[in-house]
Amino acid sequence: MVHADEIAKLCYERFNQLPRRGKPEPGREWTLLAAVVQITRCADSDTVKKEVVSLGTGTKCIGQTAMSPKGEILNDSHAEVIARRGCIRYLIQELNRAVSGGDSSVFCQADQRGKWRLQPGVVFLFFTSHTPCGDAAIIPMIDSLSQPCPPVLSVKSHKENDGRGDLKRGPEEPSEGKHIKLPRLDLEDGGDTKQSLLPNSPKSEDPSQSPSAKTPGPSDSAGRLAPVPDVHRTGAKCVSGGPADPLHPGLGYHSTGVLRVKPGRGEPTRSLSCSDKLARWGVLGFQGALLSHYLQEALYFSTVVVGKCPYSQEVMQRALVTRCSHVWDLPAGFSVCPPELLRSSLEFPFSQAQTELRHQAGQGRISPCGAAISWCNVTERPLDVTANGYKHGVTKKALGTAKARSLLCKLELFHSFLSVVAATDPGALPDSLRRTELKTYWDFKEASRLYQQAWQQLHSQAFPLWPRSDRDLLLFR
Ligand SMILES: [Zn+2]
């Protein structure tokens, strides 16, 4: 039905068609790509239309003190979040068409007053070039080594082979430096430390050749060091208030199935990992609180496709699906709607691994690209390139003005939403918007009662440690 490679190809091609602004420098910079693909099955024929409606790149996230009480900055510029916010822009445009009496390829009238639903045959699919950061990235090495991904070399052979000496990092940690501390697996008997394995760097030999790799345990009966199965590490820290990572060698390094904040060096961020956000969208939908006013049913991704990278089906299932699968008692229009999880064999040409392969001497240090690109299928200003949460290349003087704002920031999306409300015939307004005292962004989000009820259920049943948003940062209008 859905071919993962076909989807990946579509998204990479869409990326190739974009202008250069904000793209990584080939061979030196890498980035992550995510996209929302709309699939439309035409009722009267067998044709299926697949088109990218939103695409995002990015690896960064701002620190918490940079957050804006005016809603002017993009807090989270990971590709997945950029792609989802671009999709919201697209949905707002389509909703605007629908409420104005025009033709929308997405929405048609639902039976409740003022409410809309997806056109028959329309589904949305999510693509990400890499396993989402956070829980889904904590992949046992055995799993990922058995997959066709670039081999992870031991420190020794790595140095011998290419002389660069950079340790391969885990599958993510976009902005975390290469100098991550790797705890050594030291021998208890003070034996030959040359045999110590760096837990992040298992030998590149065929894991099937080392049967002991399948069972955890630092030493065999003779006291020799046995290869310890390890996990890909994440720089994403557990949210506060819950258990921390045990940091044991090997598989016990991380806690699994827990909420994490986005990885990054420097000041801590308040944004949760992409694994957590994707899990949340599987229950609340990806449309957010504002659009929920107009929708009879939440919008769910039917499928999540991941590009070629270290990947584990079980871990993806745990991170995106199992953590929320028991949630019940959701209000009308919401349900636990886990996506089908697929993986593609096609790698994003600007992935970290590809960039390392293409890197040439004299090119300078490999680093994540600082810019985030958003493109979405809207008629006005479809492209939005940002850095540090503001428009790319904006001068300091322009900060605080509309010129500096991304079209994906809270304030801009709020204003676009208000233009839909203004375009709606008062008699056709959804009930939840019929109160006149709604003024701020916070007011409009809170008034989305069913969405808030669904969030309360998800929060209490699955994610009690998910930090509540700070009201003071949401009172703009
Ligand atoms: Zn992420």
How would you describe what is shown here?
This protein is α+β, with helices and mostly antiparallel strands and 477 residues long. It has one domain. Helix content is 23%, strand content 14%. The protein has helices at 4-16, 79-99, 141-145, 155-162, 274-284, 288-292, 313-320, 352-358, 410-423, 441-446, 449-461, and strands at 29-30, 33-41, 48-57, 59-61, 76-78, 107-109, 116-118, 122-128, 301-306, 340-343, 367-368, 371-376, 383-387, 390-391. The chain has an eight-stranded mixed beta sheet, sandwiched between helices. A two-stranded parallel sheet has the order 1-11. The protein has a two-stranded antiparallel ribbon with strand order 4-5. Helix 2 (79-99) packs parallel to helix 9 (410-423). The longest helix is centred in the N-terminal third of the chain and has 21 residues, at 79-99. The chain is globular, with a radius of gyration of 23 Å. Residues 145-220 have low confidence and may be disordered. Zinc ion (ZN) is lined by residues 78, 80, 132-133, 273-274.
Mean pLDDT: 85
Task: Count all strands and give the number.
Answer: 14
Main β sheet profile: 8 strands, mixed
Content-based structural category:
alpha+beta
Overall outline: globular
**Ends distance:** 44 Å
SSE series:
HEEEEEHEEEHHHHEHEHEEEEHHH
